[in-house]
Design a protein that fits this description.
single chain, two-stranded parallel ribbon, alpha+beta, 4 helices
Length: about 260
């Protein structure tokens, strides 16, 4: 895991998005909100610097380039029928936790309560809740966004597994389970309700007062994937919510 995160951080740096890392954060005693070593609250706009044709457009049916789909996953992707999703009321299948962060969506992040970080998206009007100390529900899938358990990791030198002992940086670690079956891309490339997702969220500084949110994602699925899908997604902090524009889930036809 450490090697994976180091490779992803190197890729981000080479993309020219990051110009530095924050100073050492000292966690405080108390609730997860009070102990938050970084400020994630606010509005964030996506920087679509990779996979543009998959993230900004709906790719042709069956175009699953760079996805680790197995034979069954490829079969399901090639059978995608947009009209059937609309008829079944499944317009939000591409807006579940396994795909929403790769959408061209703004984020609005706030503390819903002292133990729950709320991440809202204007694309699809979705709401992800990161539960500190929470326990995933047993049984069937919980919903499009599943159930996410969060913890601050790596800020204390004694918790050095995330980035190496003594490293001054750290991350918000999020593990999501209990998701409904959805699409990792809006052209019907699937992930199942057995999928699990690990994310690391980091805030890093750029030139001047610019701040970036970097989301490293590892999505594993024993039903439709041969290997984990690993991506990094980037956002830039906005001054306010003047461009926040919530829109409902919609099925968009593939390009030809």
């Amino acid at each position: 895991m450490r090697a994976w995160r180091q490779r992803m951080a190197t890729a981000v740096a080479l993309a020219g998005l990051l110009a530095g890392v924050p100073a050492a954060a000292q966690a405080q005693d108390g609730s997860p909100q009070a102990a938050a070593p970084v400020d994630l609250e606010g509005y964030w706009v996506p920087l679509v610097t990779e996979d543009w044709r998959f993230r900004m457009l709906t790719a042709p049916v069956g175009d699953t380039a760079s996805l680790p789909l197995n034979d069954e996953g490829q079969r399901v992707a090639e059978a995608w029928d947009p009209a059937a999703d609309v008829e079944a009321g499944l317009e939000c299948k591409a807006y579940g936790a396994g795909g929403i962060m790769r959408m061209p969506t703004r984020l609005r992040i706030s503390w819903e309560d002292a133990d729950t970080l709320l991440v809202e998206t204007d694309a699809g009007e979705q709401a992800r809740r990161f539960h500190f100390g929470g326990t995933p529900p047993a049984g069937t899938a919980d919903g499009w966004q599943g159930y996410s358990v969060a913890e601050w990791e790596g800020f204390d030198a004694g918790q050095g597994e995330a980035l190496g002992a003594g490293d001054p940086s750290g991350s918000l670690k999020v593990v999501t389970t209990s998701m409904r079956e959805g699409y990792v891309r809006r052209n019907g490339a699937p992930y199942s309700d057995q999928a699990t997702m690990l994310e690391y969220l980091d805030v890093v500084g750029g030139p001047g007062d610019i701040e970036y949110l970097v989301v490293l994602t590892r999505l594993e699925d024993p039903v439709y994937f041969d290997d984990p899908l690993m991506v990094s997604t980037h956002f830039r902090r906005e001054a306010d919510g003047s461009d926040w524009n919530p829109q409902p889930c919609q099925v968009t036809l593939p390009v030809r």
